[in-house]
Amino acid sequence: MKAEYRKGCLQRDSVEREGYAGARSVVSRDSRERDDAAQDLLRKILRGRNLLEAMKRVKGNKGAAGIDGMTVDELEPWCQEHGRELVSDIWFGRYKPNPARRKEIPKADGGVRKLGIPTVIDRMVQQAIAQVLQPMYEETFYEGSYGYRVGRSAQQAMESVREYAEKGYKYVVEVDLSKYFDTLNHDLLLEILRRKIEDNKVIELIKKFLKSGVMDNGVIVKTEEGSPQGGPLSPLLANIYLNEFDQEMSGRGVNIVRYADDIIVTARSKRAAERLLESSRKYLEGKLKLKLNMGKSKVVSVYSPKFKFLGFALSKNNAGVMIRVHKQSLKKAKAKLKELTARNQGRKVRVVMKKVKVYVSGWLNYYCIASMKRKMQEWDEWLRRRIRQYIWKQWKKPTTRVTNLKKLGIPEEYAYTWGNTRLGYWRVAGSAILARSITNEKLVKAGYYELASNYELKRLKHYGI
Description:
20 helices; four-stranded antiparallel β-sheet; four-stranded mixed β-sheet; alpha+beta
């Protein structure tokens, strides 16, 4: 929290209330009109309505505190007390963002993704900027760009790749940028922004965020390049930067599908794809000063097991080109379900099934465009057995098992025999003992989330059927 902010509130058109009129009286009318037009952008950013919306979004997104420790719940009271000073400082160039708090997130390939978590105040200001700039740049973005854009999704990006494959683009270049968000060239990014943004105050404000640094283990590190992931403005800046590549390749007649820094360049032949890999490398490294990871950037057939885009893969049969879930994504999801249903948790089975439902529902929302009906039926059988195994272990003693089996409608003589079985948990879970007592219908009533049926529902909903 900045000590100089002592009172006030966010107000509509608050910039005009801050003495701006006196500052402009020394210049000519024509010059004044040009300056006013240029500074309209900062006025839009600082309008009370825009700042209020930004504050609501930051609160709604929740998220961790920055280096000052302020939480999202403290943001609104702070704005009521210090909002006017914040607006004034931004307008007159006194505002100075805090360094972002560094947080490293482990990646599946063994590396780490470096996040920079700004303070909630800085997040609100960044959000206010993004809300005004996003509509300005939407019309300039390439049609094949799907990441961080309203009304666009990863599913649409994958469906676009499938459509290209159906048209004969059987090869793709998988472009892998090395630490993209950490290596954006500040000077080049600001030069690109100046082409559309005439308000120098907005440019300087963005520059301050780019140069604000990060705090890593209590040490402030300067940021001479990059736009750390974690702030609301970073995705927009990343899209603006890579739009240069999109438009360049599009101008050459090349088809691109991009989701943030995940890039697919399509080709009809392997030889053409190899040429596109080299030309992409030259432009990205030479013009945009980025670095390709040549160990991961490669030419592959879209039907190869090596092809993976946003967790999806493609296959082809008599029905045409089909979207599949990549085997690595399936493996990761199954490992997560094993973790959620581990029988040594000590939680009630209804709690376990609720956690499974939350995870599976989100997973199916994302992957519902993939053809996997049979796979979900297989997983249902496996997951129900996992749940039955969990229940059987919780019953523990033979007397408890006999009692519960009888409650579930098993005749006494069978209940006694089954309850005293020496079979292991997994074998019992797959036997008639639990299949006849803890039926599929009873599991659903208790809260089990059926994968196959819900997959079909989500798929139909996605395609509007």
